[in-house]
Amino acid sequence: PTDPAASVHCKAAEALLHLGAHEVAMPILAAALVDKNPWVRLEAINVIDRLDLNDPQLQPLVLAAKKDTNE
């Protein structure tokens, strides 16, 4: 099942990135990008966009999430 707190995890990852904890935040965002809930995926993309992240490990996940039709 989808973690009901997954969107909170995105906010926590964003805060961690502001604190410089990149190695802790990236796996959280990566997990959010493949979450079953489309709103969680959207929140992860929004965090990545707001912080202008260009992490090569996240790029394939971001592209896949953007192409997802939620069907």
Characterise this structure:
Helix 1 runs antiparallel to helix 2. This protein is globular. The mean pLDDT is 86. The protein has helices at 6-18, 22-33, 38-50, 59-67. By secondary structure, the protein is an all-alpha fold. The longest helix has 13 residues, at 6-18.
Keywords:
single chain; 71 residues; mainly alpha; 0% strand
Outline of this structure?
The chain contains 4 helices and no strands. It is mostly helical.
Distance between the termini: 17 Å
Low-pLDDT stretches are: none
How much strand content do the residues show? under 5%
Shape descriptor: globular
Structural class assignment: mainly alpha
Biggest beta-sheet profile: none
The number of E-state strands comes to 0
Tally of individual helices: 4
User: Helical proportion?
Assistant: 55-70%
Work out the radius of gyration: 11 Å
> Helix and strand succession?
HHHH
Mean pLDDT: 86
